[in-house]
Amino acid sequence: MLPAFISHPDCARHEMGPDHPECPERLGAIQDMLLLRGLLDYMNTYDAPLATEAQLGRAHAINYVHELMEASPKEGYHKVDPDTDMNPFTVRAALRAAGAAVQATDLVISGQVPTAFCSVRPPGHHAERSAAMGFCFFNNVAVGIRHALDVHGLERVALIDFDVHHGNGSEDIFRGDERVLMCSIFEQGLYPYNGEKAVGPNMMNVGLPARSGSDKFREAVATQWVPALDAFAPQLIYISAGFDAHREDDMGNLGLVDADYAWVTRQLMAVAQRHCQGRIISCLEGGYVLNPLARSVAEHVKVLIGAD
Ligand SMILES: [Zn+2]
Known about the structure:
Largest sheet: 8 strands, parallel
Family: Belongs to the histone deacetylase family.
Pfam families: Hist_deacetyl
CATH architecture: 3-Layer(aba) Sandwich
Bound molecules: zinc ion
Protein name: Histone deacetylase family protein
Order of helices and strands: EHEHHEEHEHEHEEHEHEH
Number of helices: 9
CATH superfamily: Histone deacetylase domain
């Protein structure tokens, strides 16, 4: 029973201009590094399916889903916010990215795979119920979680977000949904400029100041996330896996290193072993400098697949 690596060539056809940091090359860099380190030998590779309207509608307003599809340009770009553009392939890429989270959910819950990594773009955690923003269109991880809850009937699912930016979209979708515990660590003062105030008891947000470094990050995981997760006892854990808190990534200044991604994944694997037979689904979010991104993903995946 090998862990799943889920991606699709369509995810590399969405692009937002020549100098945009959220670029198609991110996926190639990740795949190359996983190959180079021999990690893909220990995974089954799957082509992500397209998410259906019904699946998207569990996390997004259906009007929003329709409006986004209708906004798809025939050529050139359609701007949805100052940093976020659609090209003619964006909708298909976004449907694959959300579809990957749904497929991962089916594979893990049915026991066909123990864990899954979705190497997809566009990312999702800034996408709100009715708004695309911050390079995100559909909230991939949220679509997967609602599929686990509403279709498979799970009752408690945890969402971990270690991207350097706060996952405002996931927070918007899951506020008031007590079936979900969201744990987020992010850098204070960065886009999307919120997250400091918890919006409900199912949100464990930890904003850290710039240059907090590995020790403060690990302390927050150990003293805040882990006890909250143990008390919640999730039946499945999802990770919004952003790697832009790395010290070589200029999007943020938290100052993490490769080893921090292995370490945090080990803590989450231990929680998953205690409560949910080790079941974890991880979806790529940010991480923009190709080499540290690829290395950090490899550290994360190495632990996720038990090759640590
Ligand atoms: Zn980010």
